[in-house]
């Protein structure tokens, strides 16, 4: 039964990835359909992410009061509503209405599942878990590319909603598995968990939040603007190929997490993060090569995504070890909120910047956030070590 439960959790993470990459892959076509500037994608993305921040901030309270299985079912149902709503939008302003359930469906389930896996499973399981997120995020841009070739962008959202509905049905059918798994979960891990304000005072929490913000800012920029980067800087690409290339960063994420799943228990979370950020910088350099053809940049996004791959799950997995299980639910909720604040504002600000300067600036933007991510995590490690050394003296 335990193996079936983890399989359902993996499937739930596929459902998390499906909605995240659709807007970026469809936007070059949606922009023309709605007759709005390219930067307007940032406002829709900001609304979705703002709802996710709200959902993540209430996740510690939900984890204490509601079983994880019901958080999963409700959250996936909300994303189905958002995806279907997008598929019926005929005016730009309508996107904001359905961005509300679209975003609310992500934060709480992400935080609750990450907390559960971080406490109960090794780092390899966390990496494989987020690999399945990457699988979902790779699938949906290709669904959108198929829709652009044979139908319209609206159908891309509708077809993805149908896939999401199938996952929802599986999660509903799996509810008895969650009930059995509940016995393995210590009551103290949820009922005695610390609140958000108390957790913010723990050594290393704040710099980790800033680092997570920086990581997800870079990730969110790639999610939203990869297709537009190719459309604006490379020649000889069809609309279908531009849309499909929106999945490159997600393919890299999935590959990086797959590889990390096999080596993370030996390397450890911190070393894995350092190696990942180094690989990410290599990918950013390839993206920045000023060629009119697209293969080198395509490889660059794939390599950058591979480097990014282990960073998110490793930060989440080491949360209980860094801050204690009593703080893990609140810390992971705060991390999710911080992550989505980065996802909310930085892609939007980049949209304004690229409209004024040019989308060629994307690699510089990515390099800045990768550097901030690395530096703040190193500061967090030192604060955690200093606290532990003080406690043992």
Describe this structure in words.
There is one protein chain. The protein is mainly alpha-helical. It has one domain: MFS general substrate transporter like domains (Growth Hormone, Chain: A, Up-down Bundle), CATH 1.20.1250.20. It is 85% helix and 0% strand. The chain is built from 20 helices and no strands. It starts with a helix and ends with a helix.
Short recap of the structure:
By secondary structure, the protein is mostly helical. It is 85% helix and 0% strand. The protein has one domain (2-392): Up-down Bundle (Growth Hormone, Chain: A).
Distance between termini?
A: 45 Å
DSSP, total strands: 0
Radius of gyration: 20 Å
Name the structural class.
Answer: mainly alpha
Number of domains: 1
Q: How is the biggest beta sheet arranged?
A: none
């Amino acid at each position: 039964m335990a193996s079936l439960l983890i399989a359902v959790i993996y499937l739930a993470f596929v459902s998390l990835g499906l909605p995240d990459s659709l807007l970026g892959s469809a936007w070059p076509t949606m922009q023309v359909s709605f007759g709005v500037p390219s930067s307007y994608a940032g406002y829709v993305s900001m609304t979705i992410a703002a709802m996710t921040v709200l959902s993540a901030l209430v996740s510690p309270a939900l984890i204490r009061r509601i079983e994880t299985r019901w958080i999963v079912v409700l959250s996936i149902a909300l994303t189905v509503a958002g995806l279907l709503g997008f598929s019926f939008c005929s005016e730009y302003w309508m996107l904001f209405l359905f961005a509300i359930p679209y975003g609310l469906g992500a934060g709480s389930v992400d935080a609750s599942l990450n907390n559960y896996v971080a406490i109960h499973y090794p780092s390899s399981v966390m990496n494989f878990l987020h690999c399945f997120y990457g699988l979902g995020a790779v699938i949906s841009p290709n669904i959108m590319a198929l829709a652009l070739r044979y139908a319209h962008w609206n159908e891309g959202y509708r077809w993805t909603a149908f896939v999401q509905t199938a996952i929802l049905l599986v999660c509903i059918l799996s509810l008895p598995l969650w009930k059995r798994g509940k016995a393995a979960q210590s009551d103290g891990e949820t009922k005695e968990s610390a609140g958000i304000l108390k957790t913010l005072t723990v050594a290393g929490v704040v710099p980790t939040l800033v680092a997570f913000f920086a990581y997800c800012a870079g990730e969110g920029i790639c999610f939203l603007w990869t297709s537009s980067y190719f459309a604006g800087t490379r020649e000889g690409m069809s609309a279908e190929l531009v849309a499909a290339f929106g999945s490159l960063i997600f393919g890299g994420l999935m590959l990086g997490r797959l590889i990390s799943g096999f080596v993370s228990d030996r390397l450890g979370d911190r070393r894995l993060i350092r190696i990942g950020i180094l690989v990410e910088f290599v990918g950013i350099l390839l993206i920045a090569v000023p060629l009119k053809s697209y293969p080198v940049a395509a490889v660059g996004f794939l390599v950058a995504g591979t480097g990014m791959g282990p960073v998110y799950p490793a930060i989440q997995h080491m949360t209980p070890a860094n801050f204690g299980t009593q703080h893990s639910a609140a810390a992971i909720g705060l991390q999710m909120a911080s992550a989505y604040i980065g996802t909310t504002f930085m892609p939007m600000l980049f949209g304004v910047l690229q409209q004024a300067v040019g989308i060629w600036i994307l690699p510089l933007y990515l390099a800045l956030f990768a550097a901030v991510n690395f530096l703040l995590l190193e500061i967090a490690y030192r604060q955690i070590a200093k606290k532990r050394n003080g406690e043992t003296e």
